[in-house]
Amino acid sequence: MSNILVDNCAMDQQPPDVLQALGSPLLLYLAAIGVGHLGIIYDDLVSLSNLQSQILHATQDLNRSLAV
Q1: Which of 13, 42, 61, 66 has its CA 20 to 30 A from that of 55?
Q2: Which residues, 6 or more positions from 68, have their beta carbon under 8 angstroms from its beta carbon?
């Protein structure tokens, strides 16, 4: 069993939307291959501007943390 921490808060500036869009699929794939524990640190909220790139969130998640 392995452990992975995905930390986007350590970045000095917000990454381009294309990089932000990779987080949800990456976490889904890591879980699918059997990573034991996934930790997520991401200081951003679900908004209409980033909802189209999210596979883990829907409109009812607006203004919630992307990491929850």
Answers
A1: 13
A2: none
